[in-house]
Amino acid sequence: MTDALGRPRSLLLLGGASEIGLAIAQRFVERGTRTVVLAGRNLEAMADPAARLRTAGAEVATVPFDAVDIDAHDADIQGMFEQFDGFSLVVLAFAVLGDQRRFEEEPALAGHAAVINYAGAVSAGLAVARQLRSQGRGRLVVLSSVAGQRPRRDNFVYGSAKAGLDAFSIGLSEALRGSGADVLLVRPGFVRTRMTAHLPDGPFAVSAKDVAVAVERALDRGATVIWVPGFLRWAFVVLRLLPQPLFRLLRR
Amino acid sequence: MPGDASRLVTHRELLTGWGRTSPSACDVATPTNAGEVCLALQTVRPRGTIARGLGRSYGDAAQSGGGLVLDCTGITGIGPIDPQTGSVTVAGGVSLDDLARAVLPQGWFIPVSPGTRFVTIGGAIAADVHGKNHHVDGSFCRHVTSLTLVIPGGKTLQITPEGDPELFWATAGGMGLTGVVVEATLRLIPVESRYILVDTERTADLDETMSLMAEGDARYRYSVAWIDLGSRRAGGRGVLTRGNHAPLDALPEHWRVDALDHRPRTRITAPPWAPSWLVNMLSVRAFNELWFRKAPRERRAEPQSIEAFFYPLDSIACWNRVYGKRGFVQYQCVVPFGAEHTLRSIAFDLAAGPVPPALTVLKRFGEASPGHLSFPMPGWTLAVDLPAARGRDLDALLDDCDRRVADAGGRVYLAKDGRMHASMVSTMYPRLNEWREIVHRVDPDGRLASDLDRRLDLTGRQSERMPA
After folding, report:
1. What residue in B sits closest to A28 (Cα-Cα)?
2. Which chain B residue has its CA at the smallest distance from A134's CA?
3. What is the rounded CA–CA span in Å between residue B60 and residue B441?
4. Cα B145–B99–B8 angle (5° rounding)?
5. pLDDT digits (tens, 9 = 90+) for A159-168
6. Which of B393, B217, B392, B415 is nearest to B333 (CA)?
7. How do residues B370-401 score in pLDDT, each as one tens digit?
8. H helices of B226-333, where?
9. Are B415 and B57 in contact (CB under 8 A)?
């Protein structure tokens, strides 16, 4: 469990190959987290990251978990909590960005992406919350995105799912009040990862490590919502109010 | 219906230790007798059950997130004192405060007093607490002649150090993981008054404090030093207070009439809204300066009341609130004689560390007790209160202190700890495996569990889970 100085004893990463998720795990392993469980669909993709975390000093296990298999989420997650005697920190990191233009050609593809980014995150988030509630403590980190703050023509399928996830997390945070568990909602801007490698850098781009550092600091101070970089919070106060014709002009 | 303990649960509550760090939500039951404790321990719960007294352990010893916490303060009752031996049988939920109020007027006192009188008998045994007389009298459980333990499954055992030394000493300092102490018989010590004749000396630095203690402690039953680590310039100067129980004829005439009239009071209550920045470098330095100057340079045989001498912090109710909502940790370690340099370097590294050491106490320990996980061992113990600042600096510093303590053959006090890493425990407590075997025998199903146990893997159940 999280110790008196806020160090998590064990960490579960849902989306075990997520670069941001792994960067968060790396930070905490450096700080003394000893058990890390990587849960994801592609066990092979998690082998190298697992090895890296082991080198950093953690005991690491990889377990199969499919974000799309909503029916299995509750049982799967309960199984992980039972097998590893609970987790102090759970990071909900799975997501797909997809290609907006292709989504418009193949609507079914967009629907599947929305299942991973929203529906899957909802059932996994609630399944985790159930476990945290029953263990009386623990923290859930949800990776949202600024893309959910105001829909843009270039990525509104992804953005709309993140908007839903963002609202869901705020509600979940309220639902967990007094349970001993809490939620940290993270709203990164453009993050340079494999997922965005094919895109030119967005404005104020950050690295996965930057997000991880911000998450660590936010958990230390007990924040409930953070933006990365931090000033995006204020940028979006303005961006949200901007009339649509003006907002449209701000391409990226 | 046998095994149905759920009716005992009164509410779910966020519990923390005295340091007010790492809360977890626990189901709380308030048993008022041994029968109800038996009932609670008949059930196997996925997150375990643990006893709690007055919540004075600093870390996570008396909580079990998602599990059942037995608030034992309702298990009360103090038997008659045997006038020959001073032996008295006391229920597990009785506090040392209640006990002293009951026995002092009859000319008896508690054999070992920790720094607060608000601990229960059960808690004092589970942590095998020590006091200012450790160098002479040893730890609390040395004075316990028998205890009644409800073990997992619900059986009640009467155990003595002679009859069942294994389970007795696994329970003494066993952090509540062998069972629930519902009753204990201990030997009180006879006293003539409620006063201690105290010698106070100010010291220039840590070395002087330590040499004065090494040379003179044997003359006193009680001895402790307060150390100023508020600034590097202070150099670990201190105030050494040592004393013995005052015989009646050592007191001024008009004090003798009510010399056993023990009625300690708490004067003020710390407010719940203290901000986390209240305890900072400046305030700590100022407080320490004041405390140092308040003490007389040297004073001999000053009569001080038991509550002023043993429990100065108890005069402020909820003093733990002054650290604000982040709470605080107490780092208490012991290093064997001969490792003084380790102690000194730890003290000064904490003084130069990322957070100000608000309150520091130094004490010499005598013989260790036979308890497997009992903390005291012959050597020096240092206890430092630190604001629980989040972030890597304090983590790293205290981890480093752990390693130095372990390398020196010392250990960290489990009842104070809230942050140590599991890998340190077997080095610090070399008899851990022996203790585990006893625990696995009395609790094969793991009915007892606490957050402390899960964090430090005391019972060894975590390491069985992780796949290779």
Report:
1. B392
2. B66
3. 24
4. 85
5. 999 999 999 9
6. B415
7. 999 999 999 999 999 999 988 889 999 999 99
8. 281-294, 306-310
9. yes
Q: Which has the closest alpha carbon to B330: B382, B281, B391?
A: B382
Q: List B298's β-bridge partners, or say none.
A: B201
pLDDT at A35 over 60: yes
B112-149: pLDDT as tens digits = 999 999 999 999 999 999 999 999 999 999 999 999 99
Over 80: is that where the pLDDT of B324 sits?
yes
Q: Which two tokens stand for residue A218?
A: 């936010």
Using a CB-CB cut-off of 8 Å, the residues of chain A touching B390 are 5-6, 220-221
The answer to whether B267 touches B315, Cβ cutoff 8 Å, is yes
Point out the residue among A5, A84, A135 whose CB comes nearest to the CB of B388.
Answer: A5
A68-80 residues labelled b (16+ CB within 10 A) or e (exposed): eeeeebbebbeeb
The answer to whether the CB atoms of A4 and B21 lie below 8 A apart is yes
pLDDT tens per residue, range A123-140: 999 999 999 999 999 999
- Whether the CB-CB separation of A23 and A209 falls below 8 Å is answered with yes
pLDDT above 70: percentage of residues in chain B:
98
**d(Cα A205, Cα A228) in Å, to the nearest integer?**
9
Say how many residues make up chain B.
468
Mean pLDDT rounded to a whole number for chain A: 95
Radius of gyration of chain A (CA): 17
The residue assigned the tokens 């469980």 is A37
Cα–Cα nearest to B285, from B248, B232, B246: B232
Residues 153-192 of A with CB under 8 A from B: 178-181
Which among B137, B141, B135, B133 has a CA at the least distance from the CA of B174?
Answer: B141
Among the listed residues A174, A85, A180, the one whose alpha carbon sits nearest the alpha carbon of residue A136: A180
**B194/B261 Cα distance (integer angstroms):** 7
| Cβ(B63)–Cβ(B17) below 8 Å | yes
B35 contacts: CB under 8 Å, gap ≥ 6 = none
Q: Note whether A4 contacts B421, CB cutoff 8 Å.
A: no
Which stretches of A15-58 are assigned E, i.e. beta strand? 35-40
Residue ranges with strand state E in B7-143: 9-15, 24-29, 49-52, 68-71, 87-91, 108-109
User: Do the chains contact at B59 and A5, CB–CB below 8 Å?
Assistant: no
Could you give the CA distance from residue B109 to residue B118 in angstroms, rounded to a whole number?
A: 15
How do beta strands A35-40 and A59-64 pair?
Answer: parallel
The number of beta carbons lying within 10 Å of the beta carbon of residue B85 is 10
A7 touches chain B (CB under 8 A): yes
CA distance B185 to B189: 13
What is the residue-wise DSSP string for B200-232? Answer: EEEESSHHHHHHHHHHHGGG-SEEEEEE--S-G
| Residue that is written with structure tokens 């001999």 in the block | B300
Q: Which amino acid is at B251?
A: L
